[in-house]
Design brief:
Blueprint lengths: L3 E5 L11 H22 L8 E5 L22 H11 L14 H15 L3 H19 L5 H17 L3 E5 L1 H12 L7 E5 L22 E2 L7 E5 L11 H5 E2 L3 E4 L10 H5 L2 H8 L15
Parallel strand pairs: 1-2, 1-3, 3-4, 4-6, 5-7, 6-8
Amino acid sequence: MTQAVVGVHGIGNLRRGETPEQAARTLGRIWQTHLATALHRAGDGGPPPEVSVAYYADLLSKPGRQGTGDDLDDLDPAEAEFARQWMDAFDLPTGVAAGRSTIEVRQAAETLARMRGMGAPATRWFVALLCREVPAYLENPHSAARAAARARVTDAVETTGARVVIAHSLGSVVAYEALWARPDLTIDLLVTLGSPLALPHAVLPRLRPAPVDGRGARPPGVARWVNLADPGDIVAIPKGGIGRTFTGVDTDEHTLIHTFDFHLAKNYLAHPRLGEILRDAPPTPPTLASTREL
């Protein structure tokens, strides 16, 4: 089992009232607890790995915006456009538009909730959150926030000496770009969970480096890439897209993570399948850096 892991969180992790360093430590403890559960379920009785989370949510927060609750009506034009592109990937009934207006976005979100058997208020909240944070990262390929988020990932890898990176949701996009930006970093295992990397129009063409002929590739310093997604995860679409769209993916596995809360990080992190993957990962060579916290 690996001794050190760098985690890269997804959407919905802005921790108000905490410094970035405090937030990273808090999330690291939470992730370690969930990974301990996953390893236990996989039959690994050893201690869980040290987890350092690369925290970047503060970099995507817009001043003056609370970012809580159902605020689909507060989406700006770029966010509403992202919502349209994301929902275009679903087979919504004819006549239901996910257009530029927030009224159409709200209509599409409620239709999606009925189709997937989800609660409408929770779906609206999730759509608003997703459509704020993902465009905040992807909107400008040269933004200082995007570069800083990538740097927090690579800094965490260098500081801890970790050879395993686990990235959830939007974090998989940040980790992918960060590892491409630093091909000198050697990673034994990259695990992406509930990843939107293959999402056409909304995410895939905005990646850096840009896909070639519609295809991306495993970052050069990564020895093994495993992707896990729940079949019902409305972010990890299209189904099987990671394996079809990116060369060098060793495993693109769709397995039931949770009956209802299929995108939550805690359910992915505590799943026995992830425990099996970590259990079988090669151990990270011990270093002094591996004991440090962000």
